[in-house]
Amino acid sequence: MKKRIAAAILLALILGATLVVWLSPYNYAFQDRDAIMAPSTPQHWTGTDELGRDRTVRVAAALLIGLTGATAAAVITITIAASFGLLAAYSPSPVAAILMFLSDVFLSLPWLFLLMMARSLLPLTASPLQTAVTTFLVLAAFGWPACARAIYRGAAEFRSAEWMIQGHACGLKTRQLVRLHIVPHLRPLLLPQFLICVPAFIVAEANLGALGLGVGEPMPSWGAMLLELENSALLARSQWVYLPIALLVVVLLILESFTTEIDY
Amino acid sequence: MRPQMIILSRVGRTLLLMLFAAAGTILLVRFAPGYFTDYREMDTRYSQAAQSEIQAEAVQQQSAGVIAMRMVKSWLRGDLGISRQYGVPVAELIGARLRVSALLLVRGILCGWLLAICTALPISGMRKGGILWGLPFTLLLAIPTAAMATACILAEVGGPVLVLSLIVAAREFKFLRNLLESTWRSPHLLQGRAQGLSPRALVTMHILPNVAPQLRALATLSIVTALGALVPIEVIFTVPGVGQLAWSAVMNRDLPVLVTVSLLMASVVGFAGMLSTRAVTLEEA
Amino acid sequence: MPRQLRSSLVFACLMALFAIAASGQAAPRRPGELAWAIHYDPKTFDPAKVDEQASELVRYLTGGVLLRINRQTQEPEPQLAESYQVTPQGTLIVFKLRSGLRFSDGTPLTSADVAWSLRRVLAPATQAVVAEEFLSPSEVVVETPDALTVRIRLAKPVTGVGKIFDEIAIEPADRPSEGRVTSGPFTVTDYKRGQYVRLSRNPNYWRRDSSGARLPYATGVRLDILNNREQEISLFLRGEYDLIDSLSPDYFAIVAQKAPQSVHDLGASLNTEQLWFNQFPAAPLPEFEKAWFQNRNFRTAVSMAIHRSDLARIAYNGHATPAFGFISPANKLWYNNDLKYPHESVADANRMLAASGFHRNGNQLYDATGHPVQFSILTNSGNAARQKMAAMIQQDLEAMGMQVTIVDLDFPALIERLLHKQDYEACLLGLSNVEPDPNEMMNLWLSSSPNHQWNPSEKTPATSWEAEIDKQMQLQASTASQQVRKLAVDRVQQIVADQQPFIYLVYPNALQAISPQLQGVKAAILSPGPVWNIDFISRKEGAR
Lengths: 264, 285, 544
Hints:
The complex is a heterotrimer of chains A (264), B (285) and C (544). Chain A has helices at 3-23, 55-89, 93-108, 112-121, 128-142, 145-158, 162-169, 174-185, 187-207, 222-227, 232-237, 243-259. With 264 residues, chain A is mainly alpha-helical. Chain B has helices at 3-31, 47-60, 64-76, 90-124, 130-133, 135-142, 145-155, 160-184, 187-194, 199-236, 242-252, 255-276, 280-284. In chain B, 51% of the residues are buried. Chains in contact: A-B, A-C, B-C.
């Protein structure tokens, strides 16, 4: 898929979602209690959900919130992982050992309890947007250790690469080598991790709803809509339940086309 | 460094990791909301009995330091403690479940890797349509684990191994395809293809040796991915493994079980870290 | 497609097929064995130490008891005891045992075993929950004048003799076996933690049917430990489970579609769903919020603003009944038919708020001191119907100008806020009423109780109406006269309807799925639901 076409589709999706939310006669929270799980009609293009809320508006709003939050969180987590991994790879061995040890400790701990503490520190009347932002920040803060070691190993391998030796010989500083050469060589590790993080964070946000975090009602949550797929009773009632996942696949394909090397 | 010293240092590192993991778990669980609670408190018939038990426990477990000291003393006696929710020794609970989880992990990771490699190799070498050929894996990334499990149950096919394999394969495919794409385009590969080397020779003599170091790094990542997916898979499919026990322990704030699970997690992470270290380090010693 | 690509993809597919494990299957069923799922491991098999529902079910299926409450008529029926008498003062109960009783291992069952079992339950060291029913268990004296007679002398009369002895399993004296040696229809023969509990027929069970055939009809019971509703339903539809005793309203329609003869909606259960406000004076809330929650007009206005019929229709897919009191209409003995309660009316709700100084400015309601009315409702995660109700109540109250935030918490964190720290504003939860007798709810209604949820552990009743509730509940607990008890409980129901400390929302209906292959099942709402007459339940011959 050409990158320009992909960018155009993504822009169209975002614009379209914004217009739907802005111009729709229905608020994403409004419950039409006489139209529960209604099929698509001229009033409700993609029908309604279990509480009679217009699905089109909710999916559009969820796309905007989820895409923003998950993409931002994925970028933050990749940045932290890359910084950590690179710092470890180009520091003296004892420092590298300590950093990797810390990363492993991070991986071994049950951070769910810290999330529970985070919820208990938030006021109960925190708005859905505040809990959503907190959730995505928390996900970004804890999503990096898994990737950091892979980046560390990858970056450590490059220390003895020919182009590194040539770069040093040409007088490039480590900072310049990192920016101009190492980071591009790490793209095969960083970009797939980004692609994996986006849907993982969207679903994780919904799962954290069980702890009081996540996007609170009545704000629509993309992850919660994806989790509807586990409910066979809902799947039997409406085909529009598949809309959020279809959109997510389209978004992921678009993101993937930005992140692949080859221009198809 | 001599090989024996290297092995000793790795084992020592893992033991230290386990100690830190245990300490961190005690702190997190003890001070998380809901530690001194019991779901029976909400049942008017059983609430008084439950509250007396909790009060007695609260007197003994006020300080995380006291809890930690007691645990260390019992570990030195070979005792992993008594489960708060089941009232039986933790060793007895975990022992029976370790084998189940280990088998599930090994099968899931191996099958996931095989699936990822066998699909990433040809797809990464394609000039056109690679993204669309990779669409099934993009779809797998988007589907929540619980939805995959429901699909298996409704279709009456598949089970925990299939779901774990697919999760691992979807993630590894993305890495492998990107890695292999750049390798396919490297000059020596182009030279080999131009000179008519068979695909098998290209893969075995040029591609795999080139990407072996990154593959080792990815191996750590896939172990961590599989460990993370283990809990929802065991819970949803009711597999009597460590993941299911861990989830139940989280919901019931079962500290002795959670500390033991953290110790196990730390040992696996430590082992995975050892795997990703270059074997040549030992050879060089 | 290039050959190498094709062969690689074929290999990949073969790997995928290799990875396919068998789909979740229940363990193989033995002939004549009944099977269904429970949602978590029983904590104990010792019948004297039962303190949660899974263990209660195992005790029900295995423990032989002196009396059993018929779950349809709610009347006690003799079991191990052939007859019993209670003196008019209620301080002496005499049981006459059947002759020829044996335990499952063949040893005789006599009054000595009954006395031992009773004394063990009453002993403080056992911490048996049922001991509290005796009011002063340490003063209870058990005598055995002969092998078939047991005399129990009580210091104070107790209510619900049948119900108390329904929960005391008779075990061999000095040989507690945790359900392995029993006098009930089944014994525990196998237990794999996290997987299943297997019960086998007691070969020496005393009971026979009218034609003299041995009971129970079933050869055994397998209780699978399974917490996944999708799997439970799939296994039920495949015939591997015989019943689902608490079918979720979400899944009722889909099971009804695939197996129409198997689903049963028994109408309102005894359970309630309710919303309440934190009235604890020392709660960590601003004083103006406490003033709202302690204001009867505010609570009543909230009650009037909620559309209960919508909650029942939408959150429960029609499988719930709007509720206005704590006694469900299914509880025929205790329901107050003349209860006067605030009816749904947004106009009246606005009037009540205005009477207390609340006023609207645009879409926002303000109190008399100018504070916007905003509060949170806590509920527990994992209950889909409750979460839908919360979202619907949020909209109903928004129409009144109140801004409500919904907070889902996991159960331990919720309990800590509710019962330990009282750090919450409003809460939406359900109450599972296993017993129809309101005496079981003493811990909820007595103002001094830690379970007096809106204001726990009051040293003295905070209001005159709470004092009145205390008085009436203690009256009904201390008299054997059904009429006096009924009047007292009616009075409590009316006070609660007037003051709205709990805003009752719905009574969820009792939904069950029972395989058409089962015979002998008699529908009942009271726990343990469809298996209450387990002795007479069996599968049809040749059923899969």
